[in-house]
């Protein structure tokens, strides 16, 4: 699995390690029973990881022992079943290894059932993350004392052996590699396909880079059904008007896990004037203005995404929910024309703006014409036109629309507990 070649440590990592306090670094030599090397050598299920550590000793040798770290060590099976693993790819190995080292000692025994806990890792390379200070992962304790680490694209790693101490911190053995969170585009398009309309709207408004690369963002992303309900209205907006609406869904410079969204908090958004979002908690429900959070804590390369059930409107920031009912009414005026149907048969707005990829359907997945026909009202110069989307060459082919039946699968059963 690993070649015999040796790697030199990238400058970026050396720089990172240089800022860590110098101290009594632990040794990989198995001379003391508490050393990491001894712990790894004694566990035959960790031989792949142990070889990796020996191949990249500098990463571990220079960690501060007194500050404490948590090493998430994938067992041998974890490497075998991770299809993209390439032990020869220095960038991949280094960055994934960094993502498996948590800042501070995270003892699973101290984790309570309930809200998710977020931990920062040593992954800081901007080619991999724009969460400055270290990309994050999520820790959950589930019934039966099961501890699960959630990483990118909803990937779950179960802790098999917990809280093994060594000189310098704790070791957690997991059954699955943690995946560094991907950028917003593949996350919304492939892993959480209930967010394709949201992503399409960002393309249509020319905001993809802003949403995907602004450091430390919190994004409230309405699911497809939410866009379907206001399709007629949104498709009638100019590109600038749509951009103003979409920017109201992003809180820049604030990494906000769902558990940190306190009742009564106002969040400054990227919309013009920073129009605030209002957080309301009612029982176990969490609302952003009048939209309910339906799936919290989706990790992306530059922050965290929370899925909501209504499109937010900066012109209706005073909207409040009625917690006694389910999905709240849309907060946009009804369109004079244009259908806003929900359900699997209705078109999913803005998906025509998604750039084509290799697996992009050439014809609509629903075999209907509605998905292509009604997506844009591109009549005037101010209208939203897919060809105007930033980052999209006018020449490039596009998806011709996906029906909800094809995009509504999402990642079911994520089981991220603790939205209370
Ligand atoms: C270690 O591997 C053996 C078989 O290779 C397996 O039976 C055992 O459950 C593994 N232990 C852990 C903690 O993964
Ligand atoms: C190494 O992995 C990264 C991330 O998957 C990839 O972008 C890059 O192309 C790979 N490099 C090589 C040389 O395979
Ligand atoms: C982080 O942001 C920079 C622009 O500031 C961008 O070039 C880079 O690709 C981003 N990294 C990721 C993983 O998206
Ligand atoms: C991003 O957030 C982390 C903590 O979550 C913080 O350490 C870092 O300074 C923040 N960076 C910016 C640019 O806001
Ligand atoms: C949040 O905004 C609302 C409405 O504008 C205001 O009544 C409230 O005082 C604000 N709360 C805080 C904590 O600033
Ligand atoms: C949140 O605040 C509102 C108004 O301030 C209050 O009515 C509501 O009971 C609070 N919710 C919780 C869960 O405390
Ligand atoms: C799709 O539409 C074409 C032309 O209207 C028709 O020939 C074809 O049978 C349809 N396919 C399906 C799967 O409904």
Instruction: Give the cofactors and ligands.
Output: 2-acetamido-2-deoxy-beta-D-glucopyranose
Mean pLDDT: 79
Q: What is the CATH class of the largest domain?
A: Mainly Beta
Lateral arrangement of strands in the main beta sheet? 2-1-7-6-5-4-3
Instruction: Give the distance, in angstroms, between the N- and C-terminal Cα atoms.
Output: 43 Å
Helices and strands, in order, run as: HHHHEHHEEEEEEHHHEHHHEEEEEEHH
Question: How would you classify the helix and strand content by structural class?
Answer: alpha+beta
CATH domain fold name of the largest domain = FAS1 domain
Poorly predicted regions: 1-33, 362-420
- Output the number of helix runs: 14
Structure description:
By secondary structure, the chain is an alpha+beta fold. The chain folds into 2 domains: 11-174, FAS1 domain, CATH 2.30.180; 184-419, FAS1 domain. It is 23% helix and 19% strand. The protein has 14 helices and 14 strands. It has helices spanning 11-19, 36-41, 47-55, 57-61, 76-81, 90-99, 184-191, 196-205, 208-213, 224-229, 231-235, 239-247, 370-373, 404-407, and strands at 69-74, 101-103, 117-120, 136-142, 146-150, 156-166, 169-174, 217-222, 250-251, 266-268, 276-282, 285-288, 291-300, 303-308. The chain has a 7-stranded mixed β-sheet. Strands 9-8-14-13-12-11-10 form a 7-stranded mixed β-sheet. β6 (156-166) and β7 form a beta hairpin. The chain is elongated and about 70 Å long. It binds 2-acetamido-2-deoxy-beta-D-glucopyranose (7 copies).
């Amino acid at each position: 699995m690993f070649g015999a070649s040796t790697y030199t440590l990238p400058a970026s990592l050396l720089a990172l390690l240089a800022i860590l306090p110098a101290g009594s670094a632990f040794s990989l030599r198995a001379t003391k029973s508490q050393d990491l090397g001894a712990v790894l050598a004694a566990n035959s299920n960790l031989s792949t990881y142990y070889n990796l550590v020996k191949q990249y000793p500098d990463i571990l040798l220079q960690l501060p022992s007194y500050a404490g770290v948590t090493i998430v060590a994938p067992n041998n099976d974890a490497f075998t079943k991770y299809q993209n693993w390439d032990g020869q790819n220095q960038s991949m190995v280094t960055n994934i290894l960094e993502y498996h080292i948590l800042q501070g000692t995270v003892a699973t025994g101290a984790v309570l059932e309930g809200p998710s806990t977020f931990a920062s890792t040593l992954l800081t390379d901007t080619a991999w993350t724009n969460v400055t200070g270290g990309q994050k992962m999520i820790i959950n304790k589930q019934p039966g004392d099961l501890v699960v680490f959630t990483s990118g694209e909803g990937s779950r790693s179960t802790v098999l052996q917990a809280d093994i101490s060594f000189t310098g911190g704790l070791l957690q053995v997991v059954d699955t590699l943690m995946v560094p969170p991907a950028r917003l585009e593949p996350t919304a398009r492939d892993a959480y396909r209930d967010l394709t309309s949201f992503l399409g709207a960002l393309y249509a408004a020319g905001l993809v880079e802003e949403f995907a690369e602004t450091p430390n963002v919190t994004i409230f992303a309405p699911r497809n059904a939410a866009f379907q309900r206001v399709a007629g209205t949104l498709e009638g907006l100019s590109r600038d008007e749509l951009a103003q609406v979409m920017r109201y869904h992003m809180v820049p410079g604030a990494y906000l896990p769902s558990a940190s969204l306190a009742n009564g908090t106002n969040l400054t958004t990227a919309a013009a004037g920073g129009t605030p979002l209002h957080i309301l908690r009612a029982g176990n429900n969490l609302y952003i203005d009048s939209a309910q959070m339906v799936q919290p804590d989706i990790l992306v390369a530059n922050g965290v995404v929370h899925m909501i059930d209504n499109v937010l409107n900066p012109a209706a920031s005073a909207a409040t929910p009625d917690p006694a009912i389910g999905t709240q009414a849309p907060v946009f005026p009804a369109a004079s024309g244009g259908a806003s149907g929900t359900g699997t048969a209705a078109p999913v707005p803005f998906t025509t703006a998604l750039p084509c990829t290799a697996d992009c359907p050439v014809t609509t997945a629903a075999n209907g014409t509605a998905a292509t026909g009604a997506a844009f009202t591109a009549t005037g110069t101010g209208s939203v036109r897919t060809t105007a989307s930033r980052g999209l060459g006018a020449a490039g082919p596009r998806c011709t629309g996906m029906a909800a039946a094809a995009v509504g699968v999402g990642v079911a059963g994520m089981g991220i507990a603790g939205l209370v």
